[in-house]
Amino acid sequence: MSTRIRSLKFNAVMNMILVSSSFIFPLITVPYVSRVLNPSGMGAVAFAQSIVSYFSLAALLGISTYGVRACAQVRGDPEELSRTVEELLVILAASTTLTFAAYLLALQFVPRLAGDKPLFLIFGTALWLASFGVEWFYQAIEQYGYITIRSIAVKLIGLILMFAFVHQASDYHVYGMIVVFTGYGANILNMLRLRAFIRFTPLNQLNITRHFKPMASFLVSSVSSGMYAQADMVLLGFLATNHVVGIYQLVAKIKTMLVMAINSVVNVMLPRLSYYARNSREKYHDLLVKNIDFVLLFASAGIACAALCADAIIDILGGSQYRSAALPLLCILPALLFVSLNTVLSQYLISSGHERQYAIVNFTGLVSSILYCLILIPPFGATGAALSCSLCELTALLIRCWYARDFITTIRKDLQIIPAPIAAATATGIILLIRIAWWPTRPLPQIIATGTVFTILYTAMLLLLKERTTISIMRKITYKHY
Fold first, then answer.
1. For this UniProt entry, what's an example GO CC term (predicted)?
2. I need a labelling partner for 115 at 20 to 30 A (CA). Which of 240, 338, 381, 441 fits?
């Protein structure tokens, strides 16, 4: 069994390539498919995808998070690692079977779902593919090179299929199949490759029950966090038309792409954090501080640039049918910072053994999300869903800060909270003043001009404010140049 553990720099680069592909492919596919299927078709697919994600969360039982920690902790012991993976797969087989039965009953008796049963049956296959993707195992042993190559290959195939078979509004079922394949097709390869790492043993030699207690908190937290992340889309689907859902799904896609870009480095840290939590408190502390600095730096830039280019982004990705999505996009942008900081603090709670507090936060987030959606969606539609998303993430962040207050107190002196927001606000203000005199009117030149000028101004301000991450990057670039 070969489980070579690469450096964090290699993993971060691989994950950034993976995230870049997750960013680039939608930039190619979304403008095309949004115009072909129109908001109603896109809304139908987005709603079905959100409903299935709810059932998938129940089937996974929190193993997508628990599995990373459980496997990372024993990755140096091949026999114990194999046993752990097999035990978790047996649990998943039982939970997915029960969940799929409940899903079929929902399709039969819930009118909103029964109205387009073929589409929901297509997405039902994602339940099985998601459960047996064992992505948690490959993350635990830090096989980010494999994850990246495999994912890009599947996306390329999905891209070809989309242009080959999606040509008119009635093809939204076909598009649903392609979405399932692109999102979960790589999981088949994961299972096929698993035998290269794992030696399966007879079932009677397994101890499945030992996972139940530590999984309990992960179950509550993972299901809750996943549900509150999708609550806006699901409740919007029940409270509004497919057209409104179609408008909002474009906003949600943009938010997701930006969050993935910001979290590209942050997400690779969890296995290493779990290891450092046991073996090196100093490295554990330093890594979390770097994560927070990174999030503040890139989230501030992402929010500012997206706000400056909101109309242009909507025009490029959706076209004239989606122009009403500009206001919801502005309302959801604060969530970029809240989501990313929530990710970092969640890493702290998980890697330091605070699963109970992690679960409480996510459950509270779910409750607050439902309340915000029920209050804001009826009067404001897609804009209300966007506002509820930002408010929910802010609520979750405040509670996480409360539970992590002792840790935050210890690292506060090492954090640089002020430079990034000030630099982003200053750069934004200067660009708004420049726009009074002249600025490109076409969407793409507008985005390019904004991105270029903002990057120059933002970097200059960060250097002026002596932001250490920026200084470190510039020193490395200068050193390599000379």
1. membrane
2. 381
Average pLDDT, the chain: 84
Whether 296 and 181 map to the same domain: the answer is yes
Contact 82, 71 (CB under 8 A): no
3-class SS at 427?
A: helix
pLDDT tens-place string over residues 170-216: 999 999 999 999 888 888 888 888 877 778 877 777 788 888 887 87
Angstrom distances, CA of residue 401 to CA of 277, 348, 405: 19, 11, 6
Domain check: are 437 and 290 in the same one? Answer: no
CB 439 within 8 A of CB 449: yes
HSE-up of residue 342 (Cα within 13 Å, Cβ side): 25
Give 450-457 contacts, CB < 8 A, sequence gap 24+: 450/305, 450/308, 450/309, 451/305, 451/309, 453/427, 454/301, 454/304, 454/305, 454/308, 454/427, 454/428, 455/301, 457/426, 457/427, 457/430, 457/431
Asked if residue 436 and residue 391 are part of one domain, the reply reads: no
pTM for the model: 0.80
Whether the CB-CB separation of 214 and 66 falls below 8 Å is answered with: yes
Domain ends where: 386, 415, 444? 415
Range of the domain at 281: 8-415
Extract the runs of DSSP E, i.e. beta strands, from 21-125: none
Query: Smallest Cα–Cα separation from 222: which of 91, 398, 94, 350?
Result: 350
Residue 346 lies in a domain: yes
Does residue 443 share a domain with residue 364?
no
How far apart CA 434 and CA 448 sit, in angstroms, is 15
What is the domain count for the chain? 2
Based on the fold, state whether residues 215 and 303 are members of the same structural domain: yes
Does 13 fall in a domain?
yes
Burial of 390 (0-12, 13-18, 19+ CB in 10 A): buried
If you search the block for the tokens 């059932």, which residue do you land on? 55
Residue 380: how many CA atoms within 13 Å on its side-chain side? 19
> What would the two tokens of residue 8 be?
């964090």
- Flag whether pLDDT at 278 surpasses 90: no
Whether 128 and 275 map to the same domain: the answer is: yes
Same domain, yes or no, for 386 and 249? yes
User: Averaged over 250-266, what is the pLDDT?
Assistant: 80
